[in-house]
Amino acid sequence: MALVDQVQFDKDGLVPAVVRDAASGAVLMLSHLNAEALNKTETSGQLHRYSRSKGVVIDTAEVVREARLSCSGDSLLLSIEVQGESRDCFSTVLWQDEQASPAADDILDAVYRIVLERRNQPADKSYVASLFAKGLDKILGKIGEEATETAVAGKGGDPEAVVYETADLFFHVLVLLGYYDLPPERIYAELRRRFGVSGLTEKASRGQAGAAK
């Protein structure tokens, strides 16, 4: 069944589509598609959107990797392959409940932002600031220590200990990412790149790349 037969268009013949970066998951824009744009997107595999200001269909030349339909059938979620660096269109926070914990899929990003805050505005009683003050070797040493403790917890067979030590390990890895100004999105993108690829194949490709150097 064609996409246009599954979508519920509004009174203007349009359907809103949230467009995100397939690699990082960052929301890029909110677009609208009419039947022509949706048909061209499906047949070409490239995103075509409808310009409400110009009244024409625009070919963005961005490859669509995935298209999802909302449960109500009146909106789309499109994941595209971005050419160049992507930017999160919804990075400006207008309101946020400071008492609320971040969503499960946002927690690493939230902790990373705090790491950067402590790095850029160090406080006397900040553990993160003390790690940055002591330098890279101290940060790397803590990662090695936490990795060892995680392995010991795994060997001990206590699931709760594994959770606790893994959280410590993740935290110190985020400090290392902060040292190099590498947002978690870079790790997400690398994991997405590897998704669906055999681990043996991926490892072999790294070995070939090293040999080529």
Question: How would you describe this protein?
Answer:
The protein has 213 residues and is of the alpha+beta class. Helix content is 46%, strand content 19%. It has helices spanning 35-44, 107-120, 127-134, 136-156, 159-179, 184-194, 199-212; strands at residues 15-21, 27-33, 46-51, 56-69, 76-81. The protein has a five-stranded mixed sheet, covered by helices on one side. Helix 2 (107-120) packs across helix 5 (159-179) and helix 4 runs antiparallel to helix 5. The mean pLDDT is 87.
C-alpha termini separation: 49 Å
CATH superfamily of the largest domain: MazG-like
CATH architecture of the largest domain, by name, is Orthogonal Bundle
Q: What's the number of extended β-strand segments?
A: 5
Tags for this model:
Ubiquitin-like (UB roll), Helix Hairpins, 2 domains, 46% helix, 19% strand
Write the layout of secondary structure elements.
Elements: E1 15-21, E2 27-33, H1 35-44, E3 46-51, E4 56-69, E5 76-81, H2 107-120, H3 127-134, H4 136-156, H5 159-179, H6 184-194, H7 199-212
Parallel strand pairs: 1-5
Antiparallel strand pairs: 1-2, 3-4, 4-5
Helix pairs in contact: 2-5, 4-5
Compact summary:
By secondary structure, the protein is an alpha+beta fold. Helices cover 46% and strands 19% of the residues.
